[in-house]
Each structure stands twice: as structure tokens, then as C-alpha cells.
Amino acid sequence: MNINELKIVVTGGASGMGRHFVEQLLADGASVSAWDMNEEGLASLKANYPKAPLHVAKVDVSKEDQVKQAMDEAWKQFNGLNALVNNAGIFRDSLLVKKDRQSGEIKTMSLSQWQTVLDVDLTGPFLCTRELSAKLVEAGASEPAVIVHISSVSRAGNMGQGNYSAAKAALVADTVTWAKELARYKIRVASIAPGFVETPILQGMRPEMVDKMVNQVPMRRLGQPNEIYAGLRFIVECDYFTGRCLDIDGGLRL
Ligand SMILES: NC(=O)c1ccc[n+]([C@@H]2O[C@H](COP(=O)([O-])OP(=O)(O)OC[C@H]3O[C@@H](n4cnc5c(N)ncnc54)[C@H](O)[C@@H]3O)[C@@H](O)[C@H]2O)c1
Fold first, then answer.
1. Which of 197, 216, 226 to mutate to test the pocket of ligand 1 (most atoms within 8 A of CB)?
2. CATH code at position 127
3. Of 22, 41, 114, 215, which is the most exposed, with the fewest CB atoms less than 10 Å away?
4. Span 67-88, pLDDT tens digits
């Protein structure tokens, strides 16, 4: 597929990596529907590209009715769609069980920490993928389509991220499942597992924490959003790539 032929939904498009994807996709000639809960971010995106083929929608990807409505709107806006990036994601880190050294108090990951992350990072991509795929199949589209999940290096398991790791690993498993199920309709499904990427998520961390992270990376630096976009571009353009996950992590998992 050519990037400039894309009519693509990008979830979590108001900030960080998603915003970079939206801006690059527009620069490369695609039509983009950016979804996010951050209304301010969406408004500034729209203001920066008043004439571009850009549709924005306030959507919580974990809510079925909102996803259905936004998919209808975006489909109408561009007279069909042929791509989706499931990028919206959150983390709520906690150890499963922790004993406080001084008080002896036992702390645990709460059910809401577990469930909220699963809702956004796994149910969200399920709903978005299902709604777009159903529309494509119903339309009997003869043109190809592509769906990309943004997983994470944490898909292999990471201390303090039982919830996030579970969601990001499941996304890669369903990349295989849905690639197999949807190939007959010319829909490809792939994923990208980034390592540590310089986005607003990291700005909230203490500099010594970021240094500690960088020291684990063989390439000794953070990734940049444009390096993840290069992977997205490859997946879009390589029509024989499906069912696989691209690790873009500076060697973190080696
Ligand atoms: N930054 C990293 O180091 C890194 C590494 C690996 C994977 N990732 C993944 O990349 C993706 C983007 O991360 P980022 O670093 O750009 O984070 P970010 O926080 O800058 O962006 C995430 C966006 O998703 C939106 N969002 C959150 N919950 C939502 C919901 N329920 N519905 C719709 N939108 C919602 C947020 O408002 C935000 O705009 C996430 O899936 C994240 O897990 C990030």
C-alpha cells in the first residue's frame, strides 16, 4: 500500500507517538482520523492543520458505543477507511504484592489498576479492530487494508507491569489470530513493540530513572517517535508483511 492512499484512524493521536504519526501521515499525503480523550490536544492538532484531510474525534477507545460512533463518522468523512493504528495506551504500574519494609503493611495491585489498563490497552484495540474489520468486510472492499497495534517491549514481562505486560502480550497474540482470520479479506494485521521512546510519558519520570532505563539499552539512548514511524511505514508499504511484531527497541530485548 502507498502511504498517500491511506485513509487511516490513529488512536491516541493527540500526544506523544500518536501525534507524531498523525503529523507524519499528513505530511506523507494520507487522510487521517485522530482519536483521543484529550480534547485540548485534538483541538490544537486541528488548529495546526486547518486545510489538511484531518478528522478528529473525542473517543474513549475502551467504550464500545463511542468506538462504533467514531468509526461511522470517520468512515463517512473519508468515504471509507483502509487503515488503523491502535496506539492509545496507558500504564498504572504496581507490583502484584509488596511488603512495606518499615510498617510490614502488604500492598497489592488493585483490581481497578489491573482492569483499567486491560480496558484501554487491550479491549480498546479489540473494539477498534473489530469495528473497522466489520465495515471493510461488509463493504466487500476489493482494496487491501492494514491494522497495526502498538505493543511494547514489556510484552515479554516487566516488574511492576503485570497489567500492562498482559495487555501488550495479548495484542501480539491477537496480531497472529486476526492476521490469520482476516487475510482472506485482504486485511493485514501487524504490531510494533517499541522500547523506551522519548514522549511526554517519560517527561513525568525522574531524570535518574530515565538514565537507569537508558543504561539497559545496548544503543545507550532513547528511541525517537520518527524511528517508530519508520517501522509503521515499512508495515504499510510491505504488502507481504502480516501477523508479525516488529521490535524497535535499540536492542533492549537482546
Ligand atoms: N513511550 C514509550 O516509551 C513507549 C514504549 C513502548 C510502547 N509504548 C506505547 O505507545 C503508545 C503511545 O505511547 P506514548 O508514549 O505516545 O504515550 P502518550 O501518553 O504520550 O500518548 C498516549 C495517548 O493516548 C491517549 N489515551 C489514553 N487513554 C485513552 C483512551 N481510553 N481512549 C483514547 N485515547 C486514550 C492519551 O490521551 C494520549 O494522547 C502506547 O500504547 C504505549 O503503551 C510507549
1. 197
2. 3.40.50.720
3. 215
4. 999 999 999 999 999 999 999 9
